[in-house]
Amino acid sequence: MLRQTLHMLGKEMLTEWRQRARISGVFWFAFAIVLMVAFATPNSAVLPQVAGGTLWLGLLLASTRSLDQSYAVELEHGAMEGLMLWPVDPIAIYYGKALANTLVLVLVAFALLPLVIAIFDAPVVGNPLNLIVIVLLGCMALAAPGTLYGLITSQARGSSVLLPLLLFPLVVPAVLAAANATTKVFEGDPMEQVPSWLALLTAFDIIFWSLSGIAYGKLLED
Q1: Whole-model pTM?
Q2: Where do the structural domains in the chain lie, given as residue ranges?
């Protein structure tokens, strides 16, 4: 299973490398949202307080463009049937795609972080290692259900609209937890709330990475 997942991950990352414009498009979409929030905030004194929320708002909205396109190659070239004929477990296909989507979001998040810190004048008072963990867990929380819903909406008419409608209500707890934890790292955490938010993100990831993998195989066969 691990070998199959790694092969699937390698295929997905090779596809992303050949279509690098797609990742840059996701980044610029998220960056535009960050800029709009920064320039729309009337009081510059509150910019550091909204930096964490703005980062995750940008990632949430931009993730729909990445997840919506994760099946584009298979659909455009009629390769979905060939993918199903691989001697690969459907669960390995799911985890390969979900890991690839996670890596794309992590790359975009780490590219956005220094820009958010500079634009919002948000000093990192807390432990920077916590910030890295928050980004990883938060991107995993977006990618796990997003990869599953991407399959559901991939062949539907208006998939770019349907995917956010399905995904956003589900990931609200994870996004709120990631935004609050990021804000605590930026501003400092005297009450030590970051571990609680990280525990919530971890529980969310465990549940959805498990359930989505199980459901994916049945949906792929249908």
Answers
A1: 0.88
A2: 2-221
